[in-house]
Design a protein that fits this description.
The complex is a heterodimer of chains A (118) and B (116). By secondary structure, chain A is mainly beta. Chain A has strands at 4-7, 10-13, 19-25, 32-38, 44-51, 57-58, 67-73, 76-81, 90-98, 106-109, 113-117. Chain A contains no helices and 11 strands. Chain B contains no helices and 11 strands. The chains are: A mainly beta (118), B mainly beta (116). The interface between A and B is medium-sized, with 29 and 25 residues.
Chain lengths: 118, 116
């Protein structure tokens, strides 16, 4: 299957700092990437849809100024958690859609990034 | 919007037995149904998927069935092994909106434990 790389896998930061998480599709181009947040023993919660070359689309209740998303190329999307607080601690996962425009693409997930805000 | 229900939330089976996880969806326009396996501390991994024009798909010990009329689909794992222990998520894709999105709606997951 296709490979999606997410970095860093773990990050610990102090409250008030910003953290950037990268999501790369290594062997395919991804016009669309998705960012999820997962709480312990829970399902994935979609945060935003990232489209290459345009602004991300955020789900209801997700602060776009808090979670900055940039999709500057067909293989890279970044999520920046700004002014992080302990309640932002979570497991963040990205996914990338492989395939042509339309409804035929498969989704492949990154390995996830565990953020801990002290 | 789409709503996906997944059952059971936990499942324990003896090694070698079969495991079945069931999901139902609400949007009759959904046309793609993937299954993901998530091991502790890792991202979900696609293990099998099925599209609405197919009723069953099999890949070695894993199979998925789809009943469009009843709007439910199931994951079947035969001859389970300890390494099958993980959390499994089903998902359904809403119809293409034309807005360039490809959103999946996930079930809440099933924690499968295979007892040696």
């Amino acid at each position: 299957g296709a490979v999606v790389s997410q970095h860093p896998s773990r990050v610990i930061c102090k409250s008030g700092t910003s953290v950037k998480i990268e999501c790369r599709s290594l062997d395919f181009q991804a016009t669309t990437m998705f960012w999820y947040r997962q709480f312990p023993k829970k399902s994935l919660m979609l945060m935003a849809t990232s489209n290459e070359g345009s602004k991300a689309t955020y789900e209801q209740g997700v602060e776009k100024d808090k979670f900055l998303i940039n999709h500057a190329s067909l293989t890279l999307s970044t999520l920046t958690v700004t002014s992080a607080h302990p309640e932002d601690s979570s497991f963040y996962i990205c996914s990338a859609r492989r395939g042509l425009a339309g409804n035929t693409g498969e989704l492949f997930f990154g390995e996830g990034s565990r953020l801990t805000v002290l | 919007g789409e709503n996906v229900e997944q059952h059971p939330s936990t499942l324990s089976v003896q090694e070698g037995d079969s495991a079945v996880i069931k999901c139902t969806y609400s949007d009759s326009a959904s046309n793609y149904f993937p299954w993901y396996k998530q091991e502790l501390g890792k991202g979900p991994q696609l293990i099998i998927d099925i599209r609405s024009n197919v009723g069953e798909k099999k890949d070695q010990r894993i199979a998925v069935t789809l009943n469009k009329t009843a709007k439910h689909f199931s994951l079947h794992i035969t001859e389970t092994q300890p390494e099958d222990s993980a959390v499994y998520f089903c998902a359904a894709r809403t119809a293409y909106s034309g807005a360039g999105s490809y959103q999946l709606t996930f079930g809440k997951g099933t924690k499968l434990s295979v007892i040696p």
